[in-house]
Amino acid sequence: MRLTTKGRFAVTAMIDLSLRQHDGPVTLAGISERQKISLSYLEQLFGKLRRHQIVASVRGPGGGYSLAKPMESVSVADIIHAVDEPMDATNCGGMGNCHGEQHPCMTHHLWTTLNTRMLDYLKGVTLAELVAQQNHPEAAVVKDERPARRLRRSVAEALAA
Asked: Are 55 and 17 in contact (CB under 8 A)?
């Protein structure tokens, strides 16, 4: 699975917005300038974020965007999902017909387990944590406290299933 520019830009823009919204609505032109993201691309992304009720827009002079809900309740998975970013490491879209066959390929369970773990991780990282990390770069976003051996065993179990 590869996170595309769309997902990366959406998360980056949301961090920028969250850092600056205390002064009022944040303009996309400002985000565009600070983050070096095309204004038209941001307009597309924020249209999707607005439709998913992650951001709210204010029209007119002094207008722009602000968060529609507390940043503690917005996960990275919410942002990525809102901009239609696929989070699937399988070649079959999770259908199990990886090569047009009636059964999954030999690595299907590996990739579906990876999908589940990635989604769980991204659901666990909030916008508030990413903002805090910007204020204190030495702070980790989310630590995986599981021992490496346990993680390897889980992957081996997933492959055996």
From this structure: yes
Return the domain boundaries, the chain: 5-160
Fold (CATH) for 5-160:
Arc Repressor Mutant, subunit A (1.10.10)
Position 146 pLDDT exceeds 50: no
pTM, two decimals, is 0.77
Handedness of CA 65, 68, 70, 76 (dihedral sign): negative
C-alpha R_g of the chain: 19
Q: How far apart are CA 34 and CA 134, in angstroms?
A: 14
Q: Is 64 helix (H, G, I), strand (E, B) or coil?
A: strand
Q: Which two tokens stand for residue 18?
A: 């969250």
Euclidean distance between CA atoms 71 and 148, whole angstroms: 31
